[in-house]
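Collaborator request log, item 7. Partner lab (contact: R.S.) asked for a structural prediction of NADPH-dependent 7-cyano-7-deazaguanine reductase to inform their binding assays.
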Amino acid sequence: MTTKPSTDLETFPNPNPDRDFVIRMRIPEFTCLCPKTGQPDFATLYLEYIPESLCVELKSLKLYIWAFRDQGAFHEAVTNKILDDLVTLMQPRFARLTADFGVRGGIFTNVVAEHRAASWKPAEPVILPPGEWIKQ
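Returned to partner:
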């Protein structure tokens, strides 16, 4: 096998640093090991972020996520570690990682971790009435 798991995350320049825009990723094949039993835990990760000057490169993210496959980690700890690593790498304006873990012992677990840059202020939401833009 030529491709191996890696903890080396890579970035590329934000193509529109003058604008807030949201990047959303769904990562459905996350696995790690239960630190108590050694059994595999499966999760879908949902990453949302508003970049500042850097974006995460997808292949490096895939290999980084793959690196957790043989690591024992509690759901809460692994979710926060992944978000911390991404924030350290990119310094985004905003980032949210939601980890939706499969059932374990009859319990589903969702862990949500967020980061907001101290200097970032979100824009006021624009709420349009439904159907107003459609003219008959």
